[in-house]
Specification:
The protein has 366 residues and is α+β, with helices and mostly antiparallel strands. It folds into two domains: 138 residues, 3-Layer(aba) Sandwich (Creatine Amidinohydrolase, Chain A, domain 1), CATH 3.40.350.10; 212 residues, Creatine Amidinohydrolase, CATH 3.90.230.10. Helix content is 32%, strand content 21%.
Length: 366
C-alpha cells in the first residue's frame, strides 16, 4: 500500500468515527491496495462477488478468488482467498464468497462499508455497518507522489501513441489497420497487454466527436482523431490529437490551431483555488469569441485509477482545484457529419499554476 494513501484513509475513518472500512468498489480497492484488478475481459465469471479490501488501523486484508494470484507480500497486504469456479462445483463461488466475507468482518462492530457494489442479499449480514459510499472518490482527487509517478508512466505511452501515428496514418489504410499497429506498438513498449479505451475516427466521423475504429478507409487530405486512453498498472493516461493522411487542406490547420489555442487558454487558468465550473465557462467563451460553437462535452476531468474521475471540469461544478490534482483538458470544435478536431493535454496542478505532463504538441508539427 502507498503509505500516503493509507494515511488519507486513516484520517477519513477517524473523522467518520469508524474503526475499519470494507471497500468494494473496484476503483477504491485498486487505489487503496495497489492490487491491479483484471478488467480487459470484464468481470471475472469465476468469482463469487466483488474483490474487497478490509482496511483497519494497522493492516489491510484483500478478499479475492483463488483463481487470481495477487503478490500480497509486494503489496503489503494480508489476504483471504476463497475457492472459485471448478467444473464439478460451478455454483460454489457465490457461497464461498459469502462465507469468506462473514469471516473477514467477524467481530468488527464499528464498520464502514461501500454497499453499492455488493450483492443485495448481503445487506442483512452488514446491517450493523455504516454506509461510506461516496466518501472514497474525493480522497482520490489529490494525488500522492507515487500516484503522480504512475500517471507519468501511463502518459509516456500516450505521447508515444501520438509520436507513432504520423507514420501509420496514410491514405488508403483503414482505421482498424492503423489501430492494430498502434496497439501493438504500445504493448511492445509496455512489455504487456494493455487495457485501452480509444476514440479513433477519421473523415466525417471526426465531426461526431468520437467512436471506435472501423473498416473505414482514410482518404488523402483527411485526418484521424485519436483519443488514446491506456491503463498501465492501476493508472490511466489520456491524450487526444489529430493526424493528417498526406497533405491536409486549410480547414485542418484552422481547426487544429483553434483547438490548440483553446487548450493553451484552459491550461493558463489552472492553479490552486481555481473553480472547475469557471474554467469550463471561460474556455467555452474563448471558442465562442473566435466565432465557433463550443464543444458539446466536458472541458476536462481528473484521471487516476479511473480514466474519468474528480475533479470534473464541467458547467456549474464548484470544486476548487488543489495542488497535486491531475487533470486532462480537452476542448474541441466539431461540425457534425463533416469534420472535427479535439486537442488534449494532461496537467498537474502545482503550487503556482500547472505543469503540462504530456509532450505531444511540443514534439509534433503544428
Amino acid at each position: 500500500m502507498d503509505l500516503a494513501i493509507r494515511q488519507k484513509l486513516t484520517a477519513c475513518l477517524e473523522h467518520a468515527e469508524i474503526e475499519c472500512a470494507l471497500l468494494t468498489a473496484t476503483a477504491s480497492v485498486d487505489w487503496a491496495s495497489g492490487y491491479e484488478t483484471p478488467i480487459e475481459t470484464g468481470p471475472n465469471p469465476f468469482a463469487g462477488g466483488p474483490t474487497a479490501l478490509l482496511v483497519e488501523n494497522h493492516r489491510a486484508t484483500l478478499l479475492y478468488p483463488d483463481c487470481e494470484a495477487p503478490d500480497l507480500g509486494a503489496l503489503g497486504l494480508a489476504g483471504l482467498a476463497y475457492a472459485s469456479y471448478t467444473p464439478d462445483h460451478t455454483q460454489a463461488p457465490p457461497q464461498k464468497y459469502r462465507a469468506a466475507l462473514r469471516e473477514l468482518i467477524a467481530g468488527k462492530s464499528n464498520l464502514g462499508v461501500e454497499f453499492a457494489n455488493l450483492p443485495g442479499d448481503l445487506a442483512t449480514v452488514l446491517a450493523h455497518a455504516k454506509p461510506i459510499d461516496g466518501r472514497i472518490e474525493p480522497l482520490r482527487a489529490v494525488k500522492t507522489p507515487g500516484e503522480i509517478s504512475s500517471i507519468r508512466a501511463a502518459l509516456e505511452l500516450c505521447d508515444l501513441a501520438q509520436a507513432v501515428l504520423p507514420r501509420l496514418v496514410q491514405p488508403g489504410r483503414s482505421e482498424l489497420a492503423i489501430w492494430g499497429d498502434l496497439r501493438a506498438a504500445l504493448e511492445n513498449k509496455a512489455g504487456r497487454r494493455l487495457p485501452i479505451l480509444a476514440d479513433f475516427v477519421s473523415g466525417a466521423r471526426t465531426g461526431d466527436i468520437g467512436g471506435p475504429p472501423t473498416n473505414r478507409m482514410i482518404n488523402a487530405g483527411e485526418w484521424l482523431l485519436a483519443d488514446i486512453v491506456p491503463r498501465l498498472g492501476n493508472y490511466w493516461g489520456d491524450i487526444c490529437g489529430v493526424t493528417p493522411a498526406g497533405e491536409p487542406g486549410p480547414r485542418y490547420g484552422e481547426l487544429r490551431q483553434l483547438a490548440g489555442d483553446a487548450l493553451d487558454f484552459a491550461i493558463s487558468l489552472i492553479k490552486p483555488g481555481a473553480v472547475a465550473g469557471e474554467i469550463d465557462r471561460l474556455t467555452r467563451e474563448f471558442i465562442s469569441s473566435r466565432g465557433y460553437t463550443p464543444y458539446p462535452h466536458h472541458t476536462g476531468h481528473g484521471i487516476g485509477v479511473c480514466y474519468h474521475e474528480a475533479p470534473r471540469i464541467v458547467a456549474g461544478d464548484t470544486t476548487a482545484l488543489q495542488q497535486n490534482m491531475v487533470i486532462a483538458l480537452e476542448p474541441g470544435v466539431y461540425f457534425p457529419g463533416e469534420c472535427g478536431v479535439r486537442m488534449e493535454d494532461v496537467v498537474l496542478v502545482t503550487a503556482t499554476g500547472a505543469e503540462i505532463m504530456t509532450t505531444h504538441r511540443h514534439n509534433s508539427p503544428r
